[in-house]
């Protein structure tokens, strides 16, 4: 993230707290839990980067842990979580970003196994280097998996999250091209607080949906002669 280890600690703690509340709201709908847990993951990610700052970058365990979440895990987690929470009518089209996520995650996981990721403190940002080839193709697959799945979710709140995340990606490319991964993950973490509102809407809708199913069941119950 930009600025300092302190900024990462504050942001990480705040986003993690929001993540705990979001998971609590989603408890009634188990299919929503993977997506509701995203702020928890991103909050932990910011806390890990605070450790990267503390160690002045390098290639230690904190850098590796940060890279595992940012690179192979997120492009797999996000589309899978969106697909899990999506209504049946949206699931077929969500297979496209999921496939992009699987391919991207596999490529990045292989790169992490065969190469060493290093972090470098660059003023008020952190830059990560892994020595990837075909970077443009990998970034495209990454964005299709993460932002694309949100935009195709058929849910207004998730679409808003996708738009905010896309704006964050564009700003990060323009202002911090060499530190894109770090700054964009930070903006995505902040944007993920939108999921608290999403989980609240789903929580409110759950009792109504259950009541509707009960009414339908009663209306179709055969009457005794």
UniProtKB/TrEMBL annotation:
Pfam families assigned to the protein according to its UniProt record, in alphabetical order? DUF6629
Give TM segment ranges.
6-26, 33-53, 65-87, 94-113, 125-145, 157-175, 181-199
Q: Which UniProt keywords apply?
A: Membrane, Transmembrane, Transmembrane helix
Which InterPro entries has this protein been placed in?
DUF6629 (IPR046737)
Report if keyword Cell wall biogenesis/degradation is assigned.
no
Q: What is this protein called in UniProt?
A: Integral membrane protein
């Amino acid at each position: 993230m930009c600025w300092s280890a302190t900024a990462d600690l504050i942001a990480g703690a705040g986003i993690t707290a929001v993540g705990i509340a979001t998971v609590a709201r989603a408890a009634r709908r188990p299919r929503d839990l993977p997506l509701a847990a995203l702020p928890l993951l991103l909050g932990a990610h910011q806390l890990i980067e605070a450790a990267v700052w503390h160690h002045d970058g390098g290639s230690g365990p904190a850098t590796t842990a940060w890279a595992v979440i940012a690179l192979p895990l997120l492009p797999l987690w996000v589309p899978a979580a969106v697909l899990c929470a999506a209504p049946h009518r949206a699931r077929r089209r969500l297979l496209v970003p999921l496939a992009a996520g699987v391919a991207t995650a596999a490529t990045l996981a292989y790169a992490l196994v065969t190469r060493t990721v290093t972090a470098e403190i660059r003023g008020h940002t952190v830059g990560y280097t892994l020595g990837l080839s075909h970077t443009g193709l990998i970034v495209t697959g990454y964005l299709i998996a993460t932002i694309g799945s949100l935009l195709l979710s058929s849910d207004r709140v998730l679409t808003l999250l996708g738009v905010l995340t896309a704006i964050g990606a564009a700003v990060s490319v323009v202002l911090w091209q060499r530190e894109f991964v770090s700054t964009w993950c930070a903006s995505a973490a902040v944007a993920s607080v939108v999921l608290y509102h999403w989980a609240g809407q789903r929580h409110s809708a759950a009792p109504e949906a259950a009541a509707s199913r009960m009414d339908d069941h009663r209306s179709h119950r055969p009457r005794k002669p």
